[in-house]
Design goal:
Metallo-beta-lactamase, Chain A, Arc Repressor Mutant, subunit A, about 40% helix
Amino acid sequence: MNVKNIIQLKNSSWLLPGPTNVGIFTDCDCGAYLIDTGCDRESGKILLRAVKQKEWQVRAIINTHSNADHMGANNFIQQATGCEIWATKEEAAFIESPLLEESFFYGGLPFSDLRRRFYAARPSKVTRILTPDQTHENFRFISLPGHFFNMVGVITSDDIFYTADALFDEYVLNKYKIPYLLDVRAFKETLYKIKNIRAELYVPSHGEFLTDIEPLANYNAFRVEEIEEKLLEILKESLSFDDIAQRLCRSFELSLTYSQFLVICSTIRSFLSYLVDSKKISHSMSDNKMLWEAVK
């Protein structure tokens, strides 16, 4: 992320590209609304330099959701500016108590070494609870479930659609193979929904902005189907979760860090839940192990 790379997408809608893209909307009084804040304190410093250079004042941070790479600079910016933070109710809980995210991915309280390896944002205070599909003078907040609990996208009055993590850039999918998903069915439904929302530009949180979202949405759907197919092939025999995770990661030739392992395992559990609910696989208990198998 670099101040020099800030892009004016249209009139009042801006983009500061980075590992996590940050949107900026400016009002007629030089007020700036940040759409997410990036990964960490350094992202916050760059954002505040950009705001200062443009002679804007930060009015609010709009968090699309609460993953640490989207609200990592919240605390720094809120402390520096006293700005508001807007988020949906479910995401607000994680923003105010980031330990919840670490514990959610681990399935319990992470041991200290793992907590050091898994980046956690500092807590910040949410001042306004958003309702998905709510309208504001300058924004429409669009419900985009699937990736996390109650994620929203933001369409500005300029007709620029910041799509959060409703879908992923091809480079990201090709590199990491298994994107993080909380609810597979909802993610698929969001992909269909987003193709039918018209905007002048679409700005995913990771990757380049687009004039046509449909090809990328279709590619995301294809990659989700690929994961499903690999799981169904693996589950032609009865396996424990650890065996499933190992075989799926091998099939994609992945070599994982601790934090990547936790995130991918959470995604695999979401896929297993989806496949059970779709009656494509079954589960059973044997010798105090939970086993999974494709329905024959």
